[in-house]
């Protein structure tokens, strides 16, 4: 139990060290690799392999004894380094072997019955000897890599077993007298151990200190105070002032301020603690036995500072204009004290565990301290949920408090936390102290890591989309210098943002269970869920409740990922492209169906049903599809053709048979058309592919007005032309280009036949504009006493039938 507790808090503390080196690791990952013109000699590579083999044997011998969590971590790192060294040596040896093989191939094979030149024979023997030596070294490296992988797997299994034992060990309940009797019985011995720990340290201090002024310790303390207070405050103010003056855009300034606040809030206490303890070491006032405790104090100070700064950067109490999260000042103000308590509790937990380890506290004392830590964590979680519940109740009647989806999601998370809190509290009362402490620390670590991930995602998105924007300075340079369209620059920024955010999520997932050493344990636990119920095996596929549940979970996760991707695609990426609404709809539909198909394939693969089995099933169903689902398949294929070729787009005005309306939606099965009476006509896609469809807005969105009439032969045609052009010009919706035109079609039965044309922005404006023009023409012709007549049908071109609402006059033909 004591070892489990030590591994929990010790690994929590080690995560902070990983966070401090995360930036350095990122730089190393993106730094260009140095290429050497000269190859490493075979002797150097052999020495490298020999050292890797020696390290592997050393790790193997160390695992024969009992190793604590810290030692296991060191051994794992050593085995991993040996594995990487052997793999690097094997890679270089493989390159050298390929060169030798090429030289051997160039020499060719010896011809039988002929005397080969001695030089060639000597080269052939030398190459054969080198090839044999390199091949043997490659086999040694491969064997060393396999042994290292086995040792790493053994260490991982040991950590998993240690974690499982820690969370499954049951002790006496804190409510029983036996629990407190064990604590009381071990108290005298623990008091003596603590007294010995402090007395040995003070004795060493008195021995070293000769009465002089410990200026090194004083200098370290002064430096710690400077770093902790004025330097931290000045650095934060300097960063904010620089962001205000130099950072482009509010979003980038906001996210940059949050990240800078986390860096200063983390580095300041870490460096302050390191400076203080280093001053004590230089002055000789740091006892050797206290070294581990003070190292833990440095980590505790840094982790507490990181917790306080990252939660403070999310809340930004009193600074709503710099806040990334969408919350009000009241919520931030109420949650901020809890974040300080969480930071303090995290640092105290690390120090507490380190003190027990260095003092050598008894098992009863360790269990008691774990119980107190777990209880404090549970009380903090309960306080957070109570504050959150009060905030929700206070804003229940506020329509602007938030969307229903956000409220529902927050309610689900709150309910899950209450249930988890109840389970942890019951486990603590029963005696599963290790399990309770794990749950409490896991919730706290999830909160801290989730806050850091939230800030990192926002910062990555803001940086990528601000730098690679069509309106940014860099985007302008790319557009002018390289001729790249602004939309392409914006699209690249969004894609880069997506890649960075996915990488951050993967890193966070990798660190999620790392502090507790339970990454393998959790995977092992979920991996064993399928064995709870064996089920039956059909056709090589195991069908069991566990497998079905696993498939459902995988399908839900897949559909959730598809939904998140579609939200990003439709809400972020497609709006910055040059595609119109119909093109966006086509891309969105295809991406949605492809995503759903991939999610279904993933779910089937989790059940053990591979793609080949799905193909076999589809081939078996092909006959049924050919007969029973022929119409559905035809519509589906027609829908894909419509989405690909786009002869009909969303927003087009089309006529199908006698029905005319606007295209509102195109799916893979049918197309929805909104008619003039606001009803919806659902047309199967096969009808739009195999039959004649009139698309009035496919090539040109302009609409044409055509008015035909006749006047007596003696009427002045110029006067008629002027009246018609004035009437057309009085209509505001008529376009200047193409210009209106008045033509004389011919003479018939003593009358002059006129054909008048004009254009408007859309075919939807033709009906109203033509009606207005006709109203004006009728009035003007009556004023000029011009008698209108009908146009003989034999001289008119075929025209489309007007809507039923138009009433034909006996002397005007309209189209």
Automatic annotation (TrEMBL):
This protein's GO CC annotations: plasma membrane
Domain DUF3772: 138-200
Transmembrane segments: 213-235, 258-277, 297-316, 337-355, 375-393, 405-432, 438-460, 488-513, 547-569, 590-609, 615-643
Mechanosensitive ion channel MscS C-terminal domain span: 706-787
An example molecular function term from Gene Ontology annotations: mechanosensitive monoatomic ion channel activity
Topology within the bilayer: Multi-pass membrane protein
Major location category of this protein: membrane
Gene3D superfamilies for this protein: 1.10.287.1260, 2.30.30.60, 3.30.70.100
InterPro entries in alphabetical order: DUF3772, LSM_dom_sf, MS_channel_C, MscS-like_channel, MscS_beta-dom_sf, MscS_channel_2nd, MscS_channel_C_sf, MscS_channel_TM-2
Claim: Cell membrane is one of the keywords in the record: yes
Keywords carried by this UniProt record: Cell membrane, Membrane, Transmembrane, Transmembrane helix
UniProt cross-references to SUPFAM superfamilies, sorted A to Z: Mechanosensitive channel protein MscS (YggB), C-terminal domain, Mechanosensitive channel protein MscS (YggB), transmembrane region, Sm-like ribonucleoproteins
Domain Mechanosensitive ion channel MscS, residue spans: 632-695
Subcellular location, record wording: Cell membrane
Stated family: Belongs to the MscS (TC 1.A.23) family.
PANTHER family the record matches: MINICONDUCTANCE MECHANOSENSITIVE CHANNEL MSCM, POTASSIUM CHANNEL RELATED
Protein name: DUF3772 domain-containing protein
Organism: Sphingomonas aliaeris
């Amino acid at each position: 139990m004591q070892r489990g507790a030590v591994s929990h808090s010790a690994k929590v503390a080690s995560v902070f060290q990983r966070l401090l080196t995360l930036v350095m690791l990122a730089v190393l990952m993106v730094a260009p690799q140095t290429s050497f013109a000269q190859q490493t000699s075979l002797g150097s590579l052999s020495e490298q392999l020999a050292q890797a083999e020696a390290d592997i044997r050393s790790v193997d011998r160390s695992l024969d004894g009992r190793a604590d969590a810290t030692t296991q971590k060191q051994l794992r790192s050593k085995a991993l380094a040996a594995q990487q060294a052997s793999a690097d040596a094997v890679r270089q040896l493989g390159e050298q072997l390929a060169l030798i093989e090429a030289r051997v191939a160039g020499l060719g094979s010896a011809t039988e019955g002929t005397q080969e030149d001695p030089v060639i024979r000597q080269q052939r023997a030398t190459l054969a000897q080198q090839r044999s030596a390199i091949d043997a070294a490659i086999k040694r490296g491969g064997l060393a890599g396999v042994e290292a992988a086995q040792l790493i797997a053994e260490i991982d299994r040991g950590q998993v077993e240690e974690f499982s034992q820690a969370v499954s060990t049951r002790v006496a309940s804190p409510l029983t007298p036996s629990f407190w009797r064990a604590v009381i019985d071990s108290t005298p011995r623990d008091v003596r151990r603590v007294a010995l720990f402090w007395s040995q340290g003070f004795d060493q201090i008195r021995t070293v200190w000769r009465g002089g002024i410990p200026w090194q310790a004083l200098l370290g303390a002064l430096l710690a105070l400077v770093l902790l207070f004025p330097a931290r405050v000045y650095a934060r103010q300097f960063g904010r002032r620089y962001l205000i003056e130099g950072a482009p855009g509010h979003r980038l300034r906001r996210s940059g301020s949050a990240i800078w606040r986390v860096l200063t809030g983390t580095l300041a206490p870490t460096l302050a603690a390191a400076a203080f303890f280093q001053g004590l070491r230089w002055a000789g006032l740091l006892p050797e036995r206290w070294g581990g405790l003070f190292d833990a104090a440095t980590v505790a100070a840094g982790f507490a500072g990181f917790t306080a700064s990252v939660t403070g950067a999310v809340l930004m109490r009193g600074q709503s204009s710099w806040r990334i999260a969408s919350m009000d000042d009241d919520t931030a103000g109420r949650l901020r004290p809890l974040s300080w308590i969480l930071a303090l509790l995290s640092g105290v937990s690390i120090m507490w565990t380190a003190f027990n380890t260095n003092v050598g506290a008894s098992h009863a004392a360790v269990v008691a301290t774990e119980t107190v830590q777990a209880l404090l964590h549970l009380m903090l979680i309960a306080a957070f949920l109570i504050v959150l519940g009060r905030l929700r109740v206070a804003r229940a009647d506020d329509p602007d408090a938030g969307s229903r989806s956000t409220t529902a999601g927050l309610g689900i998370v709150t309910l899950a936390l209450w249930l988890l809190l109840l389970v942890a509290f019951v486990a603590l009362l029963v005696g599963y102290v290790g399990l309770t402490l794990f749950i409490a620390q896991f919730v706290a670590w999830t909160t801290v890591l989730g806050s850091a991930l939230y800030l990192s995602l926002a910062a990555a998105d803001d940086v990528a989309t601000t730098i690679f924007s069509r309106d940014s300075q860099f985007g302008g340079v790319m557009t002018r210098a390289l001729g790249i369209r602004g939309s392409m620059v914006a699209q690249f920024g969004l894609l880069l943002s997506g890649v960075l955010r996915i990488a951050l999520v993967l890193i966070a997932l990798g660190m999620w269970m790392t502090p507790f050493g339970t990454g393998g344990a959790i995977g092992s636990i979920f991996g064993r869920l399928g064995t709870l119920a064996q089920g039956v095996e059909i056709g090589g596929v195991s069908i069991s409740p566990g497998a079905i549940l696993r498939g459902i979970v995988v399908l839900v996760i897949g559909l959730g990922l598809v939904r998140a991707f579609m939200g990003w695609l439709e809400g972020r990426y497609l709006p910055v492209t040059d595609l119109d609404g119909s093109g966006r709809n086509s891309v969105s539909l295809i991406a949605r169906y492809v995503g759903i198909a991939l999610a279904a394939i993933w779910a089937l693969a989790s059940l053990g049903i591979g793609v080949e089995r799905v193909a076999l099933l589809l081939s078996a169903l092909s006959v049924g599809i050919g007969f029973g689902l022929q119409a559905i398949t035809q519509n589906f294929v027609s829908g894909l053709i419509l989405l690909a070729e786009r002869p009909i787009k969303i927003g087009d005005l089309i006529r199908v048979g006698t029905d005319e309306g606007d295209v509102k939606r195109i799916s893979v099965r049918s197309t929805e058309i909104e008619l003039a009476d606001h009803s919806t006509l659902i047309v199967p896609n096969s009808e739009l592919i195999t039959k004649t469809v009139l698309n009035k807005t496919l090539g040109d969105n302009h609409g044409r007005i055509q008015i035909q009439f006749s006047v007596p032969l003696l009427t002045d045609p110029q006067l008629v032309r002027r009246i018609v052009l004035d009437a057309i010009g009085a209509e505001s919706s008529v376009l200047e280009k193409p210009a209106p035109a008045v033509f004389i079609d011919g003479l018939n039965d003593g009358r002059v036949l006129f054909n008048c044309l004009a254009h408007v922005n859309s075919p939807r404006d033709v009906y109203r504009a033509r009606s207005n023009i006709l109203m004006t023409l009728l009035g003007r012709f009556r004023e000029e006493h011009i008698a209108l007549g009908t146009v003989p049908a034999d001289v008119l071109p075929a025209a489309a039938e007007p809507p039923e609402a138009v009433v034909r006059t006996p002397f005007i033909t309209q189209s």
